[in-house]
């Protein structure tokens, strides 16, 4: 936060915390629960490395974790309403029409079989199949910063096919099995319905083919979505291209590759070699008769400079969009990786000790609020102080 003095940053922190607590208050009918929720938020933002109930209680001066646990379990409040508050807060502070909505998942390592959604499943967090919960998240990434705006807990079929298990974890009645891409589509559609300003969606191979593509084309949103090397592509009304993505990459001429940066990393520009194949131009009206304009379907390929490892992306963008723009959109995926790392290491995203559906969603929503607040502070603290115009000076003199 080099753009502001320590004093200014501290004032910004205090005013931001008051603001988010004020937005949180209407969710609670009981003033005592509202106070506990405020203390819960303070605990998430505190210096303690572990954000367990006992640790948060000690920071709040409580003799035990019961008030903290009540916020997640026994009290009655709507976690979805809090997510809407978080989303609106993020938009107010980080909005950018060219923003990218990034979709990804993360694992929550667990022991036992009682925690809602837990099971032996693959998670990139551990790099293997292990006992865990999986949450699918949407992060809003703009030139001003990035923050979570939505989340869904994935329930494997072993859960949705077991009514007794679902009831024991207090899963809402009527909840049915949904794939991770289906959960992602729900979050994308919810962002569109809320008029969240964004132009692109980026995601990895789990979300790259099928219903998400069709939904985004109908909504007039561009995308850069990961696909497997054996995914087949073909072109029309463009230079002929046909076959599996990996085979297409191997057949490309050396002149087709460009060395480009996907954005700044901790060690400088994140450079790779990139190639882009335009496959077809199509009218937007083919997917939504109320829309017009020409869009291009394509294949974007990334090659690692060190080892030649390849990654592939199906793309959809307004005709004339250059490879540089598509590379920058793909590079925005780092934002959700950073979000997961920061939220777990600093805000206790994976420190939830409850087992219920409501406990998971409430805990995660409160962490999202804490993360959004820090993202907004970081953005505003780095905004340069505006020049002191004559009108500004006159207002200050009048106040004094």
Question: In a nutshell, what does this entry contain?
Answer:
The protein has 400 residues and is an alpha+beta fold. It contains 14 helices and twelve strands. 41% of the residues lie in helices and 25% in strands.
Mean pLDDT: 91
- Gross morphology is globular
The share of residues in helices is 40-55%
Structural class from helices and strands? alpha+beta
Total beta strand runs: 12
SS field, number of helical segments: 14
- Biggest sheet, open or closed, and with what strands and sense? 10 strands, mixed
Model regions low in confidence, pLDDT < 50 over at least 5 residues:
none
What's the end-to-end separation, in Å?
30 Å
How many whole angstroms does the radius of gyration measure?
23 Å
Topology as a string of helices (H) and strands (E): HHHHHEEEEHHHEHEEEHEEEEHHHH
**Strand content bin:** 15-25%
């Amino acid at each position: 936060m080099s753009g502001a003095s320590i004093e200014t940053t501290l004032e910004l922190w205090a005013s931001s915390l008051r603001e988010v607590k004020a937005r949180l208050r209407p969710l609670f009918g009981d003033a005592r629960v509202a106070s506990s929720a405020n203390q819960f938020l303070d605990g998430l933002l505190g210096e303690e490395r572990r954000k367990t109930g006992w640790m948060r209680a000690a920071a709040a001066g409580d003799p035990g974790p019961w008030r903290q646990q009540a916020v997640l379990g026994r009290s009655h409040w709507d976690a979805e309403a809090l997510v809407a508050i978080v989303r609106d807060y993020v938009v107010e502070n980080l909005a950018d029409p060219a923003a990218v909505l990034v979709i990804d998942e993360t694992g929550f390592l667990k022991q036992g079989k009682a925690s809602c959604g837990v099971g032996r499943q693959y998670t990139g967090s551990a790099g293997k199949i292990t006992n865990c919960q999986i949450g699918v998240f949407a992060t809003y990434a703009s030139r001003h910063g990035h923050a979570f705006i939505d989340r869904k807990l994935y329930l494997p079929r072993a859960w949705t096919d077991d009514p007794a298990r679902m009831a024991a974890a207090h899963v809402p009645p009527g909840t049915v099995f949904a794939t991770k891409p289906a959960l992602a589509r729900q979050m994308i559609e919810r962002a569109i319905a809320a008029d969240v300003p964004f132009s692109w969606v980026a995601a990895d191979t789990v979300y790259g083919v099928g219903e998400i593509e069709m939904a985004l084309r109908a909504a007039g949103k561009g995308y850069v979505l990961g696909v497997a090397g054996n995914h087949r592509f073909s072109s029309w009304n463009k230079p002929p291209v046909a076959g599996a993505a990996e085979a297409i990459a191997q057949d490309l001429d050396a002149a087709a590759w460009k060395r480009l940066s996907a954005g700044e990393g901790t060690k400088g520009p994140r450079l790779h070699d990139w190639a882009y194949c335009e496959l077809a131009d199509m009218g937007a009206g083919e997917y939504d008769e109320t829309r017009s304009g020409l869009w291009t379907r394509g294949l974007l390929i990334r090659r690692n400079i060190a080892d030649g490892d390849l990654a592939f992306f199906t793309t959809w963008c307004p005709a004339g969009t250059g490879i540089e723009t598509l590379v920058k959109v793909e590079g925005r995926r780092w934002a959700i990786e950073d979000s997961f790392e920061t939220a777990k290491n600093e805000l206790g995203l994976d420190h939830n000790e409850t087992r219920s559906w409501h406990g998971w969603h409430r805990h995660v929503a409160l962490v999202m609020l804490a993360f959004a607040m820090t993202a907004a502070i970081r953005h505003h603290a780095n905004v340069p102080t505006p020049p002191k115009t004559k009108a500004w000076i006159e207002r200050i003199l009048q106040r004094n």
